[in-house]
C-alpha cells in the first residue's frame, strides 16, 4: 500500500507513518475513555454515559479533511473526531461525565449536558464573535435524534451566502469566500426521523457544501435495521437523490467503517466536491460496531445474537486498523502493544486528574459547611438532632452539593426558636452559597451582555402633521427595506417570502431590490426553515426566518425548543444564534389558521423572546430593536393588521420598541384590562362602550410575553384600579394563566385587589369556521363588556344592576 492511497499529500514515509500511528493512538485513547467511562457510570460517579466506541476510524478520516472555518453538526458518538481535531482531551471527557460546572474544565457545557455533547467556543468573554475562520468549529449538540440536521443545513447555507453575496464580503471573521464545509453526522437508525428527510431534500434543492456521515452499525438502540429502514440500507433508498448529468443532487459514497485507506480516500473525495463545487455529499459508513451497546443503561448482549457479537469482535475497527498497520509494516506488534499500554495509563491518569479537580472543589465547600454547622451545634439546644446531620455530611467522601445544602438547610429547622450569632452565620452562609452556586446551573438563558434586548432604549415613532394613513403592510415593508439597506448581513426567507413578497405583501418588491439570496422563497418545510436560520445565525449572518402562519410553528417547535432556545444556556454563553422568527396569527377564521399556540410557546421557548405587537409600527420597532441585539426572538404580527390603516412614521428606521415593557394605551380608574395583539382592538371597543354605563377602564398592552413587564407597571395600575381582567384569544389557562402567574407571584398584585382577578380567553377548542364560528369560539366585544360589567356588579350591585 502506497502513501498516496491514504493521503493526497506528497510526504515522506516517516511523516506518513507518524500520521498513521498518531491516528492509532487517538483511536486507542478514545476507546479506552469509552471503556473506563462506562465503569465510572456503573460505580456511581456519573449518572449516564453514551460513548463513541466502534466509530473511531471514520471519525479519524473526517478529522483529516476538516479545516479551520468548517463546522460540525453532529451526533453524541463523535468523541474520536473531537479528539482528532484537538478540541477534546481525556480530562474533558471525564469532566463531562462528572458534570463539572467549571467551563474551563468542561468546555462544552460546563456540566449542563451529559457527556458526548460537543461544542467549540464561538464567542469571547464579552459575547462578541471570535474569528471563526481561524479555528475548527462544532455547533453544540443536542440529544433529540436527527435534531442536528436542520441546523446543519443552515451552517452549510452560510457558505453559499458568503460565496455568492457581495454585500457580506467584508465579514471575513466568518468565512473565507464561502469555502467552509458543514459536516454532519448521524446514526443510521436516526435517519428514520422526518427531520433527516426534510434536511436531505432541502440541501439537495439548495446545493450547499454539506457532507453527511451516516454511522451504520445496524442497530438503533436495541432495534435492528430491518425495523428502521426500507431495504435495511439507507444509501440504497437515497439513490433517488443522487446527482446525474441532467439533475443536481447528492454524491452518495459508501465505505466500510473498518477500512482505513478507503475511508481516507472517500473523505478526501467528499471534501473536494463539497468545498470546491458546493455539491452536497452523503457518506454511508457501513459495517461499524458498537462494542458497548447503546449506552450504560443496558447491555447489547441482550439483543444481539452470538453470531453478530462474534462478527463485531472480528470487525472492530480498531482491531482491523491494528492488523492493517502490521500487515503493511508500518509498526511491529511490540510497538503497538507499547502504544496500547501507554494509552491505558494516560487515560487512567486523565480520569484521576479530572475526578480530583471535580471533587476537590466540592470538598472545600463541604469543609466550609461543616465548620459553620459545628459552631451552631455547640450553641444549640437541639444538638441531638443536629449532630446526626453533621455526622452524615462529614462521612461523605464523595459529596455533591445537594448533600451540603440538605444538611445545612435541615439544620435551620431546629433553630427556628433560637437566636445566637452562629445561627445568623449559618443563614448567611446558606444564602451566599446558593447565590454563588445557583448560577452555575441556571444563568445564561438569555444574554447578559451589553447588547441584550432589554438594554436597547425606546425610540418613539414621529409623525409629521400631514402623515399619510397607509396600510400596515407598507409600514412593515418600508421598515424591512431600511433594515436591509443598513445591515448587509440581514436576509429573510420563507414560504412565499421571495417573489410575491409574502402572503400579505409585507416584503413586496424586496427580492427585486436585494436579490434572491437575501430575500428568498423556501419550500413547505418549516423545520428546515428554522434550521437554516439557526445555522446561518451561528455563522455571523442575521437571518429572519418566516413561518407563514402561527399555526405552522408546530412543525418546527422541536428545533425552536430543543436547539435554539437552549443554545446560549447549554453552551454556558459560548455560542449564540440571534435568529428572528417572523410569523403572523390570530383572528383569521377556522380551525387551522386562527388557533393560538401562545400558551404552549411561552413555556416551550424559554430562552427565546416572544413579542406580540398590536400593530405594524410596533412590529417594525421590534425588528429594529432585535437587529441591534444578539438574541433570538419570535415576533407574532397581527394577521388582520396588514390592511388596517396606520400613520406612516417619519423616522421609521429609528423606531425602537422596548422589549419587556408594557404600554398603557388608555387610562382609567375602575379596572385594569391587560391584553395583547389583535384582541386589543376588541378590548378598546368594549372600553368605549363601557363608558356609556359609567365604567372607566384602563387598558395595558403587554407587548412582549417573554420577557414580561420588567418594570411591574401593571401592578402600579392595579394599585390604582383595584380590579384586574386579563383577556386574550388563547385557550383557557394558556397565556392568560401565565400572565396571571406573573402578576400574582412576581408583582404581588393580590395586595391591591378588591375583587377576584379574572381571565377571559377563548373556548378550549380550535376556532370554528366563519364569522359566527369566530364569535362563539373567541372572546367578543360583548363577552368583554359583560365580563367587566359583572366584576363591577359584584363590587357595587346598586350602581351596576345585573345584566342577565
TrEMBL record:
Keywords: Oxidoreductase, Thiamine pyrophosphate
Main function: E1 component of the 2-oxoglutarate dehydrogenase (OGDH) complex which catalyzes the decarboxylation of 2-oxoglutarate, the first step in the conversion of 2-oxoglutarate to succinyl-CoA and CO(2).
Pfam families: E1_dh, Transket_pyr, Transketolase_C
Matches recorded under SUPFAM superfamilies: Thiamin diphosphate-binding fold (THDP-binding), TK C-terminal domain-like
Protein name according to UniProt: 3-methyl-2-oxobutanoate dehydrogenase (2-methylpropanoyl-transferring)
EC number assigned by the record: 1.2.4.4
Domain Transketolase-like pyrimidine-binding: from-to ranges: 470-644
One GO biological process term: branched-chain amino acid catabolic process
Top EC class, one word: oxidoreductase
Cofactor: thiamine diphosphate
Annotated source species: Aquimarina algiphila
Domain of life: Bacteria
GO molecular function: branched-chain 2-oxo acid dehydrogenase activity
Amino acid at each position: 500500500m502506497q502513501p498516496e492511497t491514504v493521503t493526497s499529500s506528497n510526504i515522506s514515509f516517516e511523516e506518513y507513518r507518524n500520521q498513521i500511528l498518531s491516528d492509532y493512538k487517538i483511536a486507542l485513547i478514545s476507546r479506552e475513555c469509552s471503556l473506563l467511562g462506562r465503569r465510572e457510570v456503573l460505580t456511581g460517579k456519573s449518572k449516564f454515559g453514551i460513548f463513541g466506541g466502534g466509530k473511531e476510524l471514520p471519525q479519524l478520516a473526517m478529522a483529516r479533511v476538516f479545516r479551520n472555518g468548517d463546522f460540525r453538526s453532529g451526533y453524541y458518538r463523535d468523541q474520536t473526531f473531537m479528539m482528532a481535531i484537538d478540541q477534546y482531551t481525556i480530562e474533558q471527557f471525564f469532566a463531562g461525565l462528572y458534570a463539572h460546572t467549571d467551563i474551563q474544565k468542561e468546555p462544552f457545557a460546563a456540566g449542563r449536558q451529559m457527556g458526548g455533547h460537543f461544542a467549540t467556543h464561538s464567542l469571547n468573554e464579552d459575547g462578541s464573535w471570535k474569528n471563526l475562520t481561524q479555528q475548527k468549529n462544532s455547533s453544540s449538540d443536542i440529544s433529540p435524534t436527527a435534531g442536528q440536521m436542520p441546523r446543519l443545513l443552515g451552517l452549510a447555507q452560510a457558505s453559499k451566502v458568503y460565496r455568492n453575496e457581495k454585500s457580506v464580503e467584508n465579514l471575513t471573521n466568518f468565512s473565507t469566500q464561502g469555502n467552509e464545509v458543514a459536516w454532519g453526522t448521524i446514526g443510521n437508525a436516526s435517519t428514520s426521523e422526518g427531520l433527516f428527510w426534510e434536511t436531505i431534500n432541502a440541501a439537495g434543492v439548495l446545493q450547499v457544501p454539506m457532507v453527511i456521515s451516516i454511522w451504520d452499525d445496524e442497530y438503533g438502540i436495541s432495534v435492528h435495521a430491518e425495523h428502521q429502514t426500507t431495504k435495511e440500507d439507507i444509501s440504497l433508498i437515497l439513490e433517488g437523490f443522487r446527482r446525474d448529468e441532467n439533475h443536481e443532487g447528492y454524491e452518495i459514497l459508501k465505505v466500510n467503517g473498518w477500512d482505513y485507506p478507503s475511508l481516507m480516500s472517500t473523505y478526501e473525495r467528499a471534501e473536494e466536491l463539497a468545498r470546491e463545487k458546493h455539491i452536497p455529499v452523503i457518506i454511508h459508513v457501513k459495517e461499524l460496531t458498537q462494542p458497548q451497546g447503546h449506552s450504560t443503561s443496558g447491555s447489547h448482549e441482550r439483543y444481539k445474537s452470538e453470531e453478530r457479537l462474534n462478527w463485531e469482535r472480528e470487525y472492530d475497527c480498531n482491531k482491523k486498523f491494528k492488523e492493517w498497520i502490521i500487515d503493511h509494516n508500518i509498526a511491529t506488534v511490540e510497538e503497538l502493544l507499547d502504544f496500547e499500554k501507554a494509552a491505558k495509563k494516560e487515560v487512567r491518569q486523565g480520569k484521576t486528574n479530572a475526578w480530583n479537580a471535580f471533587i476537590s472543589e466540592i470538598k472545600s465547600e463541604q469543609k466550609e459547611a461543616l465548620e459553620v454547622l459545628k459552631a451552631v451545634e455547640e450553641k444549640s439546644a437541639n444538638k441531638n438532632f443536629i449532630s446526626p446531620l453533621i455526622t452524615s455530611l462529614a462521612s461523605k467522601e464523595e459529596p455533591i452539593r445537594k448533600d451540603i445544602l440538605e444538611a445545612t438547610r435541615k439544620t435551620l429547622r431546629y433553630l427556628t426558636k433560637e437566636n445566637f450569632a452562629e445561627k445568623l452565620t449559618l443563614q448567611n452562609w446558606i444564602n451566599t452559597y446558593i447565590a454563588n452556586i445557583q448560577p452555575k446551573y441556571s444563568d445564561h438563558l438569555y444574554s447578559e451582555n451589553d447588547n441584550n434586548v432589554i438594554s436597547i432604549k425606546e425610540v418613539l415613532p414621529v409623525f409629521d402633521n400631514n402623515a399619510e394613513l397607509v396600510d400596515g403592510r407598507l409600514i412593515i415593508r418600508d421598515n424591512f427595506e431600511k433594515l436591509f439597506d443598513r445591515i448587509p448581513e440581514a436576509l429573510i426567507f420563507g414560504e412565499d417570502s421571495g417573489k410575491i413578497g409574502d402572503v400579505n405583501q409585507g416584503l413586496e418588491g424586496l427580492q427585486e431590490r436585494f436579490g434572491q439570496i437575501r430575500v428568498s422563497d423556501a419550500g413547505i418545510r418549516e423545520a428546515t426553515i428554522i434550521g437554516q436560520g439557526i445555522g446561518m445565525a451561528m455563522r455571523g449572518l442575521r437571518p429572519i426566518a418566516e413561518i407563514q402562519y402561527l399555526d405552522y410553528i408546530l412543525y418546527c417547535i422541536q428545533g425552536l425548543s430543543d436547539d435554539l432556545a437552549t443554545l446560549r444556556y447549554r453552551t454556558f454563553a459560548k455560542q449564540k444564534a440571534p435568529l428572528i422568527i417572523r410569523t403572523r396569527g390570530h383572528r383569521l377564521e377556522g380551525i387551522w389558521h386562527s388557533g393560538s399556540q401562545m400558551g404552549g410557546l411561552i413555556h416551550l421557548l424559554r430562552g427565546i423572546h416572544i413579542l406580540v405587537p398590536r400593530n405594524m409600527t410596533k412590529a417594525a420597532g421590534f425588528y429594529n430593536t432585535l437587529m441591534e441585539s444578539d438574541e433570538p426572538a419570535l415576533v407574532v404580527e397581527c394577521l388582520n393588521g396588514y390592511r388596517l390603516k396606520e400613520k406612516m412614521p417619519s423616522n421609521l428606521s429609528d423606531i425602537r420598541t422596548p422589549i419587556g415593557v408594557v404600554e398603557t394605551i388608555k387610562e382609567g380608574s375602575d379596572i385594569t384590562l391587560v391584553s395583547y395583539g389583535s384582541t386589543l382592538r376588541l378590548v378598546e371597543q368594549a372600553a368605549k362602550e363601557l363608558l356609556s354605563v359609567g365604567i372607566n377602564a384602563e387598558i395595558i398592552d403587554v407587548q412582549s410575553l417573554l420577557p414580561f413587564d420588567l418594570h411591574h407597571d401593571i401592578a402600579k395600575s392595579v394599585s390604582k384600579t383595584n380590579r384586574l381582567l386579563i383577556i386574550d384569544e388563547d385557550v383557557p389557562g394558556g397565556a392568560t394563566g401565565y400572565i396571571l402567574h406573573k402578576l400574582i407571584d412576581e408583582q404581588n398584585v393580590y395586595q391591591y385587589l378588591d375583587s377576584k382577578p379574572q381571565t377571559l380567553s377563548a373556548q378550549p377548542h380550535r376556532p370554528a369556521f366563519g364569522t359566527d364560528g369566530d364569535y362563539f369560539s373567541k372572546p367578543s366585544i360583548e363577552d368583554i363588556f359583560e365580563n367587566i360589567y359583572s366584576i363591577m356588579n359584584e363590587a357595587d350591585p346598586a350602581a351596576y344592576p345585573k345584566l342577565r
